[in-house]
From TrEMBL, chain A:
Lineage: Eukaryota, Viridiplantae, Chlorophyta, core chlorophytes, Chlorophyceae
Role: Subunit of the oligosaccharyl transferase (OST) complex that catalyzes the initial transfer of a defined glycan (Glc(3)Man(9)GlcNAc(2) in eukaryotes) from the lipid carrier dolichol-pyrophosphate to an asparagine residue within an Asn-X-Ser/Thr consensus motif in nascent polypeptide chains, the first step in protein N-glycosylation. N-glycosylation occurs cotranslationally and the complex associates with the Sec61 complex at the channel-forming translocon complex that mediates protein translocation across the endoplasmic reticulum (ER). All subunits are required for a maximal enzyme activity.
GO biological process, one term: protein N-linked glycosylation
GO cellular component terms listed in the entry, alphabetical order: oligosaccharyltransferase complex
PANTHER family for this protein: TRANSMEMBRANE PROTEIN 258
Entry keyword annotation includes Ubl conjugation: no
Organism listed in the record: Volvox africanus
Entry's transmembrane regions: 43-64, 76-99
InterPro entries for the chain: TMEM258/Ost5
Compartment(s): Membrane
Keywords linked to the UniProt accession: Membrane, Transmembrane, Transmembrane helix
Protein's recorded name: Dolichyl-diphosphooligosaccharide-protein glycosyltransferase subunit OST5
From TrEMBL, chain B:
Signal peptide positions on this chain: 1-21
Subunit structure and binding partners: Component of the oligosaccharyltransferase (OST) complex.
Organism field: Volvox africanus
Superkingdom as given in the UniProt entry: Eukaryota
Endoplasmic reticulum as UniProt keyword: yes
Protein name, per record: Dolichyl-diphosphooligosaccharide--protein glycosyltransferase subunit 1
Amino acid sequence: SCRISVLNSAILLQGYGLTSEALRRMTELAITSPVSPSLYPTLATVLLGSGLCMTGSFFLYEVTKTKSNRALRSELILAFISAVLLGFGTLFLLLWVGVYV
Amino acid sequence: MVRLTHLLLASLLALASSVLADNIKLQQVDRKISLNSQFVRITETVKVKNVGNQVVSEVILCESLGGDAVLSSYKVVETSSKNVLTVSSATVAGAPAEAACHSVNLAKPLPAGETVGLTVTAVLAKAQIPYPAELGQHETQLMLYNGNVYVLSPYSVSSQTTEVILPTSTVKSYTDEKPVSKSDNKIKYGKYDLIKPFTEKRLSVHFENNKPFKHILTYVKEIEVSHWGNIYVEEKYEIKNAGAKHTGSFSRLKYAHMNLKANSFRDLKAILPRSAHSLYYVDLIGNISTSNVRKAPTSTVMDLELRYPLLGGWKVDFTIGYSVPLKGFLTSAKSGQRRLTMDLSSPLEDVFIEDMVVRVVLPEGATNIKANLPYDMEKSFDIKYTYLDTTGRPVLVLHKQNVAAPEHAAKFSVDYDFNTVHILREPLLLVGVFFALFVAVIAYNRMEFTITRDDKWEAARSKEVLATYMEQIQALLEDEATILLGLARATNQVREASEVDTAQREKTTVEKRLKDLEEKVKPLLAAVESRSVRVGSQVRDVLDKARLLQSRYFKQLSDRIDLVKKGVALNEISRKLAPAQDALNAAKRELEGTIMTVFGAY
């Protein structure tokens, strides 16, 4: 169907009298989003949900471990994973509601 | 005499530019002046003959513009081949003040003695003058058009006709230059023979014209491209009724009841792309609900009604917006460049735009921006900051004045380089912000905020250190429980005499690991005892109980091995070992309970 729509637009352009333009059109590819828009709701929910879980475990770690038993490495790893999940989750949430950033 | 001097001057000048005024003759000119709308549309079919003895490659054609008239569109096409010819404005000496001349480059140079047919399409705006200039409500509008009876041309014209087409058959007056005839809504002037170059004779027609004079004073179109899958388009209009000005009172009742709306209008029609969605029609007050949208086979049609009808001289502003998906508008060429193709001019029908600005907002990280335009426009660049932007989005600003809607409706394209990596700028910004929040929490937890370090603080500190040791001891006890579980599993798997050796080896590994744990517990226990004797004795209790449990496990294993060596049947073994097993499980549960009570507080 992608090919057919390109062909349609090529024919439309011919109507405007831009024949060489139309021929070039047929060899161009349509650009699409890196992620299919129908996946936006699912991705937003899953990423935000798991991001909140990881945030929860990060804060649990912060409040249960005593001062000397904490390891900076595991803290940073938890924080990084939560940040990545929350960040991408927020992005897909924005895209889902129609704010195409 | 003056005319002769003018001719000589013209020919001298023309000599320099290889266009001689007397080597070209216009054999036949048929002109149609259509006054059937707010514009003046002039269509001329011109037969050009080369009567000199040199090849001619340029022809000069002129139009007469009077008063405030503006030449919005001027196209010349070769009649037989329909090739569009390039046109550039030219000044011709000897031309009258109101003539606008253009120099047309012929596709093929015209040899001597040959003729070529050209079709000229010109659109003039503001060429119809309201006369009278002011009207009351419901009075019919009369317009005055001033042109030239003869075609203004630097060459002599052998034969010409002019036809003036009017919106209705009501004509108050028109220039009487014989031969002239009026039939219904057409006035025919012609045929005139052997007219000299630049002969002026005023053509004045005073006629009824109630067509709406829709003038858009300013039009700003903003196109925002997002590679995540959407293109936003927002158009801001300021529209004025440029007909005869309204004077006197306005009666809403009379307006609603009478059929003749004279020169007022309220309706607009916009032709949008087929895949347009999320349309809105608003102004400063808010949403305007008097609108209708329907999908046609190749477009989306939006019927708008303005907030109030516009009588002569009145104006109003509004904003239209919609979104389109990327398909059909954004493509990528083989070279890697991205191409955005969209409509350049307004989607409204039959309007005259005095000042048009088109802003194309490309995503952050777009470089090497070039535009392919169907006609000349001023280009400049700008920056826009919107959602999740760091460095701002590049904006290509195109500006043009005096745009006539039907003639200037064309597509344009913008080429730019965009590395797909830049699409990650937005999510990475979000990730960075969240990570900064978490790092702030980590930093906060490592900071000490007490002002005085008194006894209460000391007590809290030592409790914390004790808790550290208790946590570690608890971890070791958990390890021990796991090891014993493994031993129990190994015990249950001893079924034949041959498996006894594996069981023995298992036992020695378990013993070694338990010994390691013992070594680790010793210093911790000492530390706990030094801090608090009471807690130390509690921990010692727990450790003793754990050791007793270990010996039960070992006894269970050795009993089983003995029974297997004796060759007792499996269910017999299970039956015999059952009471010992129950006692073991009870002891295990008791130990777990004790661990909970002792270590639970830490």
